[in-house]
Amino acid sequence: MKLLFSLIFFICILKLSLACEGNFNPTTANIGECSKDQTVGWVPAAPEYGTETLKVWTPEELSPQDREMHEQRMAYILAISKQTRRKFVTSIYAQNGTLLCHGVNTGKPNLMTHGEVAAVNNCTSLGITSYTNMTLYTTGEPCTMCASAILWLDFKVVVWGTWNSDLLCKVCMGNIPMDSSYIFSRYYGVRSTPPTLIGGVLRNETDAWFTSYCSNPASVYYVKPKCACYNSTSPLVIQQTASNTWYEGPNNTKYTQYEAKIINNANYAVNNPTFTSSPSGVKPRTVWGLKNEGGDIWTLGYYPVISGNGGSFSFGYISSQEISFKAN
Ligand SMILES: *[C@@H]1O[C@H](CO)[C@@H](O)[C@H](O)[C@H]1NC(C)=O
Ligand SMILES: *[C@@H]1O[C@H](CO)[C@@H](O)[C@H](O)[C@H]1NC(C)=O
Ligand SMILES: *[C@@H]1O[C@H](CO)[C@@H](O)[C@H](O)[C@H]1NC(C)=O
Ligand SMILES: *[C@@H]1O[C@H](CO)[C@@H](O)[C@H](O)[C@H]1NC(C)=O
Ligand SMILES: *[C@@H]1O[C@H](CO)[C@@H](O)[C@H](O)[C@H]1NC(C)=O
Ligand SMILES: *[C@@H]1O[C@H](CO)[C@@H](O)[C@H](O)[C@H]1NC(C)=O
């Protein structure tokens, strides 16, 4: 009897310490790092990049060997794509580089069976149960559904040919209007490190294969694009004025202090802009507000977003020679 009571007591303690059902009261308990009287929200998704999305590497940024490997593997699924006359094909490689399986979006058994889902289902039927550390290739960038699935499955590298934004906005092909990196950047809900993203591999070939449905509204793929247009030249304008001049040092060098303002004329915020200074190689003696990233490249020294509709950011520098900064 005594043993039974102590066992029950032990189970109760265990239950409490494991925070089992019944002892959580949302009106009195603190939630995570927030106290009970605060409202809970999400932390910025990818603060290490100062933006809301993860970096997507492009083929030009890869080493020649890596680029060649990814292009060969993309060429393989593109060939299957042409052979099966289905646009979306996915392949899965083990961490040791072995091709494990592929999958084709045939619209069967239902419309959720995208290439990624078909490939995972195929691999699973071949006995693969864990996708940790694996690499996934797909002819078209993962949609939000597949990006989420890829996070849940713990893939390490995701590689695609054609971009979502091009599929919907330039090719008029139905798609959820969101970059997959927006979903991937929220990796911290399910894994400790972000997956590596590589986009636009053999893009010329995959884009050409997707073709355009814009002039074919009768196609099952057709959707009238609803897209925002951004100028490819930066909407940031930099104004600078000399505020003060003096002579200094044994050679009586003339120094000038410049005050500069970056103004965003667009109606959208600009994230993480970079700037190039000229003449090349000339560095200010002192600078504030901007951060040098090596060479003539500069980024904003603190909060890396300039809001739209005239939002501005101030910086300044002291130099013996005027330096001009241009937004990239
Ligand atoms: C590579 O990894 C896969 C899956 O883990 C395994 O089935 C295969 O035997 C491995 N191949 C080699 C050459 O190690
Ligand atoms: C599944 O993957 C294997 C290995 O790549 C492939 O031979 C097979 O055709 C795939 N099955 C389907 C239905 O795509
Ligand atoms: C994944 O890769 C990491 C780093 O190479 C390794 O430490 C880990 O054991 C791997 N996990 C699995 C399940 O393959
Ligand atoms: C892709 O096509 C563009 C435009 O035709 C061309 O400038 C570019 O060199 C091509 N890229 C590759 C990798 O073939
Ligand atoms: C001053 O000028 C001399 C000769 O041009 C030069 O060697 C020296 O480095 C200069 N000193 C400074 C502080 O710029
Ligand atoms: C974008 O470019 C168009 C011309 O193509 C121009 O009229 C417009 O002012 C530009 N917008 C910004 C914010 O620079």
TrEMBL record:
Q: Name one GO biological process term.
A: extracellular matrix organization
- Give the record's GO CC terms: extracellular matrix
PROSITE patterns of this UniProt entry?
CYT_DCMP_DEAMINASES_1 (PS00903), CYT_DCMP_DEAMINASES_2 (PS51747)
List the SMART domains hit by this protein, alphabetically.
Answer: CBM49
The signal peptide, as residue positions, is 1-19
Its keywords, alphabetically, are: Metal-binding, Signal, Zinc
Database matches in SUPFAM superfamilies: Cytidine deaminase-like
Gene3D superfamilies, from UniProt?
A: Cytidine Deaminase, domain 2
Per its record, how is this protein called by name? CMP/dCMP-type deaminase domain-containing protein
Note the InterPro entries from the entry.
APOBEC/CMP_deaminase_Zn-bd, CBM_49, CMP_dCMP_dom, Cytidine_deaminase-like, Dd_Spore_Germination_Stalk
Among CDD domains, the record links this protein to: nucleoside_deaminase
Residue span, CMP/dCMP-type deaminase domain:
68-171
User: In the record, what terms sit under GO molecular function?
Assistant: carbohydrate binding; extracellular matrix structural constituent; hydrolase activity; zinc ion binding
